[in-house]
Amino acid sequence: MKMPPRIKVAASRPGIERLIFTADGYRLAGLLHRPARQGFPVVVGCHGLQSDAASPKQRALAQACTARGIAFLRFDHRGCGASEGAFAAVTSLAGRVSDLRAAAGAVLRVPGADGRLGLFGSSLGAAVCMAAAEALKPAAMVLFAAPVRSRTIAGGPSPAAAFQEGAGLDFDLGAVLPRLHHLLVIHGTADTVVPVADAREIFAAAGDPKRLLGLPGGDHRMSDPVHQGLFVAEAVDWFAAGFEAGHGKLSERPGPSHKSRLSGRFP
Q1: Are 95 and 88 in contact (CB under 8 A)?
Q2: How many CB atoms lie within 10 A of CB 14?
Q3: Angle at 140 between CA 92 and CA 21, to 5 degrees
Q4: How many CB atoms lie within 10 A of CB 253?
Q5: All domains of the chain, ordered by start, with CATH?
Q6: pLDDT, tens digit, for every residue of 98-150?
Q7: Three-state secondary structure along the chain?
């Protein structure tokens, strides 16, 4: 299969390939973790505001996904990691949504990908996934510490506060929540950056199938190793179930396949 001219795939190390693609003229870099089989679904991960593709959550999730026959793409948004752009100048919710759509389009054209797509987002990356979900139509989506609106985010490191006022990261995603489905929402109950109320709001508004998982006493960084292990196991199971249901190709609209469920305890 001939690859489009703006997408480059190169071997990095066994089972992992470098994927280079463009979004709005910016050259973006990612790492594609491939399973041994051909004809695989793909999960695309979106990192947080000041994180990058080296996120420990994404690395652990990528390893677990490939063990289940699922590919995982972790990439640097514009202005982050190995991708082009000056962080303060190019960072916006709209720009990151464009990055995600370009990443999904690129990875689904990689030989071996079968067209099924999943999305994972952490913190701002979760907001990006929610904003892009209607266009990308994922078979399954997993959100960790997802903010519904920028004004409720607190305690973020500089320059996060500056972005919240009059810049490209001023957002309110309340209107998109009823259009979300096939959704696993995970949130630490002691998160002091993104309020746990946002997780409850997403779960209440989203369509089936959906699940809300609380990490008791969990913080925004998911620093508890027990929570990290639970997150990986639950996320991979959710993706596997969504892909097995046969939804998630870009040409299809997913429909409900199982009931909603709430797990964990929320304050």
Answers
A1: no
A2: 7
A3: 45
A4: 10
A5: 8-263 (3.40.50.1820)
A6: 999 999 999 999 999 999 999 999 999 999 999 999 999 999 999 999 999 99
A7: CCCCCCCEEEEEECCEEEEEEEECCEEEEEEEECCCCCCEEEEEEECCCCCCCCCHHHHHHHHHHHHCCCEEEEECCCCCCCCCCCHHHHCCHHHHHHHHHHHHHHHCCCCCEEEEEEEEEECHHHHHHHHHHHHHCCCEEEEECCCCEHHHCCCCCCCHHHHCCCCCCCCECHHHHHHCCCEEEEEECCCCCCCHHHHHHHHHHCCCCEEEEEECCCCCCCCCHHHHHHHHHHHHHHHHHHHHCCCCECCCCCCCCCCCEEECCCC
Query: pLDDT per residue over 150-178, tens digit each?
Result: 988 985 444 445 444 445 888 999 999 99
* pTM of the predicted protein model: 0.87
By residue count, the chain amounts to: 267
Q: Which residue has the tokens 């695989």?
A: 40
